[in-house]
Every structure is written in C-alpha cells, then in structure tokens.
Specification:
- The complex is a heterodimer.
- Chain A has helices at 25-34, 42-46, 51-64, 73-81, 100-112, 116-122, 126-135, 154-167, 183-192, 210-222, 226-243, 264-274, 283-292, 311-323; strands spanning 301-302, 309-310.
- The longest helix of chain A is centred in the last third of the chain and has 18 residues, at 226-243.
- By secondary structure, chain A is mainly α.
- In chain A, strands 1-2 form a two-stranded antiparallel sheet.
- Helices cover 47% and strands 1% of the residues of chain A.
- Chain A is built from 14 helices and two strands.
- By secondary structure, chain B is mainly alpha-helical.
- Chain B has two domains: 6-83 and 110-206, Serine Threonine Protein Phosphatase 5, Tetratricopeptide repeat (Alpha Horseshoe); 254-308 and 316-436, no CATH class.
- Chain B has helices spanning 3-22, 28-40, 45-62, 80-83, 108-131, 136-152, 155-175, 180-193, 217-230, 235-251, 256-276, 281-292, 316-324, 333-353, 358-382, 389-420, 425-436, and strands at 207-208, 214-215.
- In chain B, strand 1 and strand 2 form a beta hairpin.
- In chain B, helix 2 (28-40) packs antiparallel against helix 3 and helix 15 (358-382) packs antiparallel against helix 16 (389-420).
- Classes of the chains: A mainly alpha, B mainly alpha.
- Chains A and B meet through helix 2 and helix 11 of A and helix 1, helix 3, helix 6, helix 8 and helix 10 of B.
C-alpha cells in the first residue's frame, strides 16, 4: 500500500457544474486497489513507516464505499500479523518497532477483516498480550507513551482506549477482573488538556487543535464520561469553536487562521457529531468542498482542490461525507 | 542516481542497520548509516529508535548510568533528582528505580564524552529540524537528547544546553509563531530550567517564585508581549499569555487592587486591538478569556466565582482551584456587573463603527445573557433586606424592562448574523430557540 501522493489531483471535471458534483465511488476503489502495485516508486519506500496506517485508511474507505472485499483478505491478514512483535505491539511494517498508533490501526484492521482467530493461531492469548502492551505504556499521571522511548500525546491516549475497547479489555467490559488500565487517571489527563475556548490540546497548556479535540472527545466517549464532563454548556462552547473551523470554501481548518484541509471534515465533523452539534456546520457546502477535492478521473481525494491525492485524505474525505449523510456512503461511528 | 537504484540503497541501508543493531554491533559506521537514512526520511521512527540504541551503548561505553534507568518512559521529562547530585553525593551508589535515576557519577571524563555525543547529535538534528519543523519524531529525539543530558551531565552542563534550546526555539518560533511543536517544546524547556538545584541557577531571566523557587514566569510573560507586539495576530502567543497569567499573579503576590488593575489593563489593551482590527480572530479569543475572568461560574454565593453549592461534576476542591486561577478570585456581583456593562457598551460602540463584523455580534450575543443574569443576582441580593419594599418592586420592574430590551436586541443581532454568517445558521437557530423559550 503506497502512501505516495498522486498521480491524481483534486479538481472539478471540465465543464462540470457544482450541482453536478458526485462521489466517483468506482474510481476511488480502483485507486485504493492500485496503491499496493506501486512498489517501484521511491515514495513507496519512503512511506514504509506508515504502511499499516495506509492499509487501515484504505480498508476503511473501502468499507464506507460499500466494497469491503476489494482488497484480498488473506493478504491483509498475513501482512498485519507480520507486523506483530513478541511484546504484543505492532509496528508500521515488518521489521518496524512496535508503537501504540500502529497497534491501534492493526487491531482496527483485524476487527474489520475478522482476523482474531488468525491472531490466536499465531500468538496464543494474543488479544491479552496486545492489551498488556498497551496498558504498560500508561504513565503515573494517566497519559500514554507511544512506545518505550517515552513521547506522550493525547493521540496515544485515544489509541489506547479505543483499541482496548475493540479488544474487550476496558475495565467496564470486564467488571469482575482487576482493571489493566487506570481510566480515571486517563480521563483526568484529558480534562487537564481542556482549554477555556472549549477545545483540547496535545498536552496540558497546549492550544486547542482539531485533531486533539477529536482524540480527547473520542477518549471521553469511549470512557463513557463525555456527557457528564462537558454538560450542555461545555458542548456549546466546544461546538462554537468547532463550527468556526468552516471557512467560505465550505472546507474546515484545524485551528484559527489556518488553511482548510479535507481531513478535518472528519476530525471536526466527528467531534461535532459526538457532542450532538453537527448541524452547526453547513453540510451542503462541506459536501461540495469534499467533492471538489477528489480526482474524478484517476480517483483519490486530496487535502484541498488542486493538490495531489493520497489515501489518508481519501478515507477522511469519504468519512466526512458519511457523517453528513451523503447517499451511498456507509454509516460511521464517530468515536 | 536514478530513483529505482536509490530505493534499493535505502532498503539495504535499513536492513543493514537493523541487522547490526540486532547483533549489538553499535559502531560509528552504523550511527552514520542512520544519519544518512534519517536525512532522507526523518519519519522513519524505527531508525530513530536504532540511533538511540547506538547512543545509549556509546554512553555506557563512556561510563554512564545503570542501563535500566536510561530509557524508561518517565525520563522524557527531567526530574529534579537528576540535577541534585551536587547536593546528594551519598546517592551515587544507590540502586536506581524508575522515578529516580541514580545521579550521574562524578567521573567528569564520562560526562565530557557524553556531552560531546549529545552535542554532536543536536548538531545533526538542527538542519533536519529547520527543514521539517512539524515532524514529531525530530522534536521527540531532541527532547530525548536533552533528557539524557539532564540525567548524565553535571547540572551546569545540562543547564547550558537547555538555555541554548530556549534560544533555538525562540528563533524557530520567530519563523513560524504558530508551530505548536515549538510552543510545547518551549514549555518543556521552561520546566527544566525552573527545576533545582537553585544555587546553580545563574539564569538572569529567572525571578524569585516566593519560596525560593526560581521561575521564568516574568520572562515568559515578557516573551508573549514581544511576540504580540511583533504580530498582533499571533494566536499561539495569546494562548500562552493566558496560561501564564494566573501563576504570574500568584508569584507577584499581587494584591486585590493590583489584580483588578491588571485585568483592566489587559482589557484596555485588547480593546485597542479590537478597534484597530475587529476581524482578527486571535484578539477575540484573548478577549473571551479575559471576560471569562469576569463571568460567573457555577453556584450562587455573593461572589461571582462561588462554588460551594455547585451541582456540577467537579469536586469542590477543583472548583476552588479554578477560583484561584481567576485574575480576581473574589470579584463581587456588583463589580462584575459594572465591568461587563462597560464591555458591552464598548462592543455596541464598536458595532456602530463596523456593522459587518460577525465577531462583534457573536460577542454581544454571548455576553448579554450573562449581564441579564448578573443583574438578576444583584437585585436578588438587594432583597436581602437592604431595600424598602416599594423600592424593591421598582428595581425589579426596571430590571425586567432592561431584560426585555436586551432580548429584543439579541433577536436583532441574530437576524444580522443569519445574513452575515450563514455557514453557522444551525447554531444561530439554536440560540434563537433558547431565547424564545
């Protein structure tokens, strides 16, 4: 799976009117399928450190586009398991060190392709091992490191919680067992990253950023504390900040005075959906923006019109369309 | 070299590094290979990991710490214990455990060598950081190197390195003032420079934090002033300023009068900014933060920030710490009403001047309900027996008339917003529903 950009570029086809814009599903499917065949390109190798991420993004897009089998399952199972380490963590590609982010993507992939039996065959008690790998990354103050080298970030905290949830190892899923992670400490850390403007940052003291808003709101949702913590007032405040991300083009940016980018259709959109304020966005204009970012001939979606497409922006563009109810796109769970 | 050939070389480089590290073949040649690979692709995190493994081996060869302490996750932030070795020579032989690494040995040869290794790596990193200022892995490696410095080098050596980092990050932020990696790294540096041993703190930028703790709050606050004066629209600088102020006022042991004066001065400054450019989002952001210090939080005592009866989820201890973070913790309802009234008056003047600026309408819509509620509480207080019954009724009626006028004004503002800012209709409609209910 190449994370290389291009060859397509986001644009509107010659002579096409805005009302005529539509999602070119088949082209996107073909684009995703083609990615793994581009092994000759230098960029294929330069993006190896993200490979499992690329697969996760491509596969998710295919599921949303209604073609979950467009990538052969056996190949996927084999590849994902080849990224598994003895520690229970997954790397981005075979030979790459284990990291919480790629562990999360791998578990998502296994969930989508129903691969846990294969996991068990390769590693007995695999699910529990993965859960323990993640649990061991939690710090005393509740935050999570990405790996043994210690970088911490709210993204990793969200990764930890959603992955444990998919594996069935969140404490509330196993009330009769001692908890393997300290959820109250984790959510306390999230709360410490909450800014007065309603948003969340990468660490306490950091300015609000849409990506971090998504991971923090997602983590609170998985932990079941979103409503009790934010309340209607908190949701209003956060919703206001998120709704201001929409600019005249219809697209969304990541924080004030920054450029629009199609991936924020997901980070911002899903956050708004989780706090019941998705209607604070102009869905029609957002839809039009996303469609203008696709390459209608070669498939794929770019971060903004005129730029080169890639699989990362493809999945988040499609997921954004799913949130606003674009016909034909599968439903997505915001958390 | 054609592209196909190039990627074959990259792959073989990666394989050879992986193989060498696996065989514990930690030579300078391997280190060089990682440098080459990382210059091509700084996002190759596994190669960063290998580089760190090689460096750790080199530190050990130089005569460093017990291996177990050096790469556990808690070491990414400097711990005071590591810098305290001059005060604590007896600890040199202790068994280290996760939270408290053994102090570096007094063997200065080992320290000199380790210092050289660290500085060489920092130098290697610099052009990469400039070329890829938003790459998490590069910032992460830099933080790791500095944390190694804290653990392994003498306090003064590591302090010099941290001080250099402050200069570097200031430079990077002057190129891109919105780089959140830079701002985050700056916070890490400040934390490191504020940690003991205090008697070695010769940093002229530090000021006395009261109990002898030297902090950089004043200089950091001045830094935000400098950033803002350079570019008024520097969102990240305003954010940083807002985070520093509560601790700054505490450190200054600011009296109530000083705190009120501070708040009024900041409000004055931001109002000037808004008159200059009412379309600047970052100014509105800081304005909102300032007014947040005036608005009531939950609870209904005679203070604006009363908390004992609050029904919200936070414990009373967290509400009282929130109270302490306010610029004027014990602002009375009367004071708050007066300040907010004044601000709303300013906003209305601003509106007369610039009718097509949506932010003014949004601010008026946000703060008018609070003014209504504050007036209600002020009248309520008066009912505590200080007014004659006839006066009470008059006051109540006047107040209700004011409320009606305000609500009418809000509806008019909402109508304007629907036209000026149709993207956010959904929100304006919800606010309208709230008004009408």
């Amino acid at each position: 799976m190449s994370l290389a950009a291009g060859p397509g570029r986001g644009h509107v086809a010659q002579g096409q009117l805005p009302e005529e814009l539509k999602l070119v599903v088949d082209k996107h499917v073909a684009y995703i399928q083609s990615l793994d065949t581009r092994r000759d390109e230098l960029e294929y190798h330069l993006t190896e450190h993200l490979r499992i991420g690329g697969i996760y993004w491509g596969l998710t897009a295919l599921h949303l586009l209604g073609q979950p089998d467009a990538l052969p399952r056996d190949g996927l199972v084999e590849y994902v398991l080849s990224c598994l380490h003895e520690s229970g963590g997954f790397g981005a590609a075979p030979g790459h060190d284990a990291h919480i982010l790629y562990t999360g993507y791998s578990v998502q992939i296994l969930t989508m392709i129903d691969g846990f039996d294969a996991l068990e065959e390769k590693m007995q008690g695999g699910k529990e091992k993965i859960a323990k790998f993640i649990a061991n990354l939690q710090q005393p103050d509740g935050r999570f490191a990405g790996d043994e080298w210690g970088e911490t970030d709210t993204r990793f905290l969200f990764s930890a919680l959603y992955t444990l949830s998919l594996l069935g190892y969140m404490p509330h899923q196993r009330p009769d067992e001692p908890p393997i992670v300290d959820v109250p400490a984790a959510t306390a850390h999230i709360k410490a990253c909450h800014n007065f403007d309603g948003g969340f940052g990468v660490a306490p003291g950091a300015e609000s950023h849409s990506g971090q808003v998504f991971t923090c709101v997602g983590a609170l949702t998985v932990a079941g504390e979103l409503d009790s913590y934010l309340g209607e007032e908190g949701k209003d405040r956060l919703g206001a900040w998120l709704s201001e991300r929409q600019l005249g083009s219809g697209g969304l940016n990541g924080r004030p005075e920054k450029l629009v980018d199609v991936c924020y259709s997901w980070w911002v959109g899903a956050s708004l959906a989780m706090i019941d304020r998705l209607h604070w966005l102009d869905k029609e204009k957002l839809t039009a923006f996303i469609l203008q970012c696709q390459d209608p001939e070669e498939g794929g979606i770019a971060d903004r019109p005129e730029d080169m497409v890639d699989v990362f922006h493809t999945v988040f563009g499609v997921a954004g369309l799913s949130l606003v109810g674009y016909p034909g796109v599968g439903e997505v769970d915001p958390a | 070299m054609d592209l196909r050939h190039e990627h074959i070389c990259l792959d073989s480089g990666v394989d050879s590094v992986g193989g060498q590290v696996a065989n514990k073949d930690f030579t300078g040649e391997t280190l060089q290979m990682t440098a080459k690979l990382l210059s091509e692709n700084p996002e190759y995190y596994t190669i960063w990991n290998h580089r760190r493994r090689i460096l750790l081996h080199a530190f050990d060869e130089a005569g460093g710490l017990d291996k177990d302490t050096s790469k556990s996750p808690n070491e990414s932030l400097p711990s005071p214990a590591a810098l305290d070795h001059d005060d604590n020579p007896a600890a040199a032989g202790d068994t280290p455990h996760k939270n408290k690494p053994a102090p570096p040995p007094s063997n200065t040869e080992a320290q000199k060598e380790s210092s050289l290794l660290i500085q060489e790596d920092l130098a290697f990193l610099l052009p990469l950081l400039k070329a890829f200022p938003k790459c998490y892995w590069i910032w992460n490696h830099r933080s790791w190197l500095l944390s190694q410095a804290t653990q392994r080098l003498s306090a003064s050596m590591s302090r010099t390195l941290w001080s250099n980092e402050l200069k570097l990050v200031s430079k990077l932020l002057s190129i891109d003032g919105r780089n959140f990696h830079g701002w985050g790294y700056r916070r890490t540096i400040i934390a490191a420079l504020e940690s003991p041993p205090r008697h070695l703190n010769t940093n002229p930028a530090s000021s006395d934090g009261g109990d002898g703790a030297l902090t950089m709050l004043e200089s950091e606050f001045a830094y935000t002033t400098q950033m803002i004066n350079t570019n008024l629209s520097n969102f990240s600088a305003w954010h940083s300023r807002s985070r520093l102020i509560p601790s700054l006022l505490e450190q200054r042991s600011a009296s109530r009068g000083e705190r009120v004066a501070f708040l009024e001065a900041e409000l004055g400054m931001i109002t000037n900014g808004l008159w200059t450019d009412p379309f600047d989002q970052s100014l509105w952001f800081y304005y909102a933060w300032l007014l947040n210090n005036v608005l009531p939080s939950e609870g209904g005592s005679e203070n604006v920030s009363g908390n004992s009866d609050s029904n919200n989820n936070s414990s009373s201890s967290s509400s009282s710490s929130e109270q302490k973070r306010r610029i004027v913790p014990d602002l009375s309802v009367q004071e708050a009403t007066d300040m907010l009234s004044c601000e709303i008056g300013n906003l209305k003047d601003l509106l007369d001047d610039t009718r097509d600026c949506k932010y003014i309408y949004v601010a008026l819509l946000t703060y008018t309900p609070h003014l209504i509620s504050l007036r209600g509480r002020r009248v309520g207080e008066s009912r505590g027996g200080l007014m004659a019954e006839g006066d009470e009724l008059t006051a109540g009626r006047e107040e209700r008339n004011e409320d009606v006028d305000d609500k009418e004004a809000m509806r008019a503002w909402l109508d304007e917003l629907m036209k000026l800012d149709p993207l956010r209709r959904g929100r304006w409609i919800d606010i309208r529903k709230g008004l009408d209910s």
